[in-house]
Amino acid sequence: MSGKGGSSYWAIVGRQLAKNGPAMFGYRCIVGLFLVAVYTPVFALDQPFYFRDGEKSSWPWFTALFDMYYVRQGVDLFFNLLIPFLPLTAAAFLALRWRLRARGRWTGKAARRTLLAATLLFLWTFFGLYIPDAKAKQTAWKWALAPGVRLRPSPTREKVPDYHEREAEARKAGRSVHSVFPPLPYSYHMTRIYEGSLPPDWFQGKVREELGAVAGHPLGTDPGGKDVLTSLLYGTRISMTIGVIAVGIYVTIGIVLGALAGFFGGWVDMVISRLTEMMICFPTLFFVLTIISVIGSPSIFLIMAAIGFTGWTGVTRLVRGEFLTQRGLDYSVAADALGIPRKRIIFRHVLPNALTPVLVAATFGVAGAILTESSISFLGLGDPNAASWGMLLNTGRMTNFDWLILAPGASIFLTVTVFNLLGEGLRDALDPKLRR
Amino acid sequence: MQTYILKRLLLMIPTLFGISLIVWAVVTAAPGEPGSQSFGEAQTQGGARGGESRRVFREQFNLDKPLFWNDYVDLTAADVMDRIRIAADRARPGKDRSEADSELTDWGLYAVPALIAALEQSTDPRERAGVLLRLQVNAKRTGAARVGRRLSADEIRRNREILAENQEIDTRLALDLRNASLANLGDPEAAAAMVRDIDAKAALWLAWYEGQRARWDWAGGERFRLRLFDTRFAKYWANLVRFDLGDSHVHKEPVLGLILSRLPISITLSVTSLILAYLISVPLGVWSAVRHRTRREQAVSTVLFMLYSLPSFFVATLLLRYLGIGEPFKIIPVAGFESSDTFPLTTWQHIKDVAWHTVAPVFCMTYASFAGLSRYAKSGVLNVIRSDYIRTARSKGLSEPVVVIKHAVRNGIIPIITLLGTTLPVLVGGSVVIESVFKIPGIGYLIWDSILQRDYNVVIGETLIVGVLVMIGILVSDILYAVVDPRISYR
After folding, report:
1. Interchain proximity A290–B459, CB inside 8 Å
2. Which domains does chain B have, with CATH numbers?
3. pLDDT digits 0-9 by tens, A200-213
4. Cis omega (within 30 of 0) on the bond before B328?
């Protein structure tokens, strides 16, 4: 699979993909969505970058992002941490490459190691910040292990202040005050009833006359007074996470089960195939809803896990079929005849070939998982603390406000479309019959 | 062919077993109490019913019983004393105490002999009081109760007996707690009265147990039967074999009947949209395959692709918002499967009324599946249209329509029959959303409503039934496939 001499399979696939306009568009949009998900707080947060009240100046934005008492949601902390980590990792990666290349020691192995180290460091910090204090204190080793635990402010600290209020107070008291807020100075979990149900700035029509409008809400507000654009931006995080984690779970399960069934055959295959047939009988949405209702706490992670543990049937069938085909092909028979151990045949020869259709299925799967989660939130059965697009659309359905229907609906539609576009492109690129 | 169908039918049995097993696993995997945290809008309506619904659920699925092996039959005095001490120990964390308490409750009648033994062994009046209070709970039997069906005369007689017995426990055998708080405050006289009462009641309980002893004196075989069959697992299957899915405490009727009464509506919707989807997608797919890579075909493909990605709940919301509520249009009805008052309508009017109500939901359920299906139909026809026999047909001088319709389509379209198997679960899953939005009282709406109202028996029962229905659907599509395509040979 490495690119030494000639063009490898993946290089051909890459070239095929690059020729496909819509697929490349989808790919770019996905990268864009990911960046939006990561850098959302730059655009929308109720903490100012810089705040000066009289003589005292502070930088609340930079501390609030990593403060679990402010952030609350693990998903948000994850993406907030990526804000510094992403450019830092990229810089470290490039610097290292530059240094090692000069000495001619830059290899794929070195690159993988660098990325692995960065990932581990990231997870280390993340879990340090994420683990609740009580537990962190019980287990002293976590203090030693995770730098985040030490970075965290002590739990007795007051709640993160409302800087809008502070600014107003200081103005009233006649002090000089200076603040630099993000363009949308709101948070998605803070409700402000007095700014509820406002149409967007540019909105015309009867509703506007009835409800009035306040500047600064490009897409209006929901009945709780949350800014819709802010919720949409933070919703990107939820959707991306749902898609990637749920699909990650079921692709892993699917590959393992499918590989076992396809490689060993016999009774293993029998059991796994029967199990797959049984699971297929449950419609995903139905089954996920049942699981959520029985377990009873609709947290976003439970929804991910539920989608992940119900969706593996397709991948299992795919991998099993692919294994059966690959096992019969000359190269793997030859490998067997050469006396190569089974483990090596599976991991080095059969598995990489069987994985290509899984890649396509996974890309479509992300779109499907996003749809499933949106449906659940849309039905009012999702995580009430997460800024999900489906939940916003549900509010729109209840209130019949155009901006609450169109904005989240369009977001879901576009996200699903770009993933489907990429999936489509990948499928075409991997299909030798369509090669141009 | 016959052997294939027979084989598939026989394979249905293990699949059915597996489906039930998966549902049981979901019920059992629920950590502790289901629905401990409520869902958004259900908070108010479900909150009050939460306790009751949990009780009904626990009863139906015997969540108080052990999983596979009933070891409650060998409870000892030490076991119950241990739990009673934990439950009464205020120094312990609340979680441990309530766990011990619920364990004692789960043991139910099985704990009675152990409690009596503990009463005999213990001398500490506090401990004896704890045992007595437990006995008052555990020694009570529950009578038969059913919703929507009458009890038999025998059951009514038994219920009367149980009621009398429980009343006796509550009055004659119950501990007199009037002195308890005074005794706790250190009043010696009240404490002495308490001790006297405890001794008296303990004697009464021992006498009561002597009279009832036969109930717990299991013979070896009986004991084994209890161990094996009075478990969650065995009881679940016993219920299933009797088609007993429990009662819905919201609708006050048996779950099975409730679901069966809602099923025709959902099946009408699903089948209609399925037929429509196939009717539209097959010609469309053939057309796109014939006109492959023309500009018009590409435009149609793009539209189909967009439709495929368009979430149906979004479309449904849009339809309701812009065509349903009168701003700007009021064309489609907002809710329901038929008008609220269908009595004065003639049959024909009634059909029209239902059709009118289902236009929007059927549209929403159809468009996504026909977008997907026609793409498959297209690729199916495309696959065969390049093959040699088509070229042969053309070179024979057959006209293009004959080549396409008689030769290409017949073969190319076969694969989309198998898609019936995968489209069906998607349709049923999608019906939850569509029926909830349009408030159509089918099974999709039922499960949504039941989750909000925490009617767990309905949720579980419906999952089971939907699983079985989809299984039958897949079976039918497989058999159809074998009928249509004689090349498929099954060993």
Report:
1. yes
2. 69-230 (no CATH), 254-484 (1.10.3720.10)
3. 777 666 666 666 66
4. yes
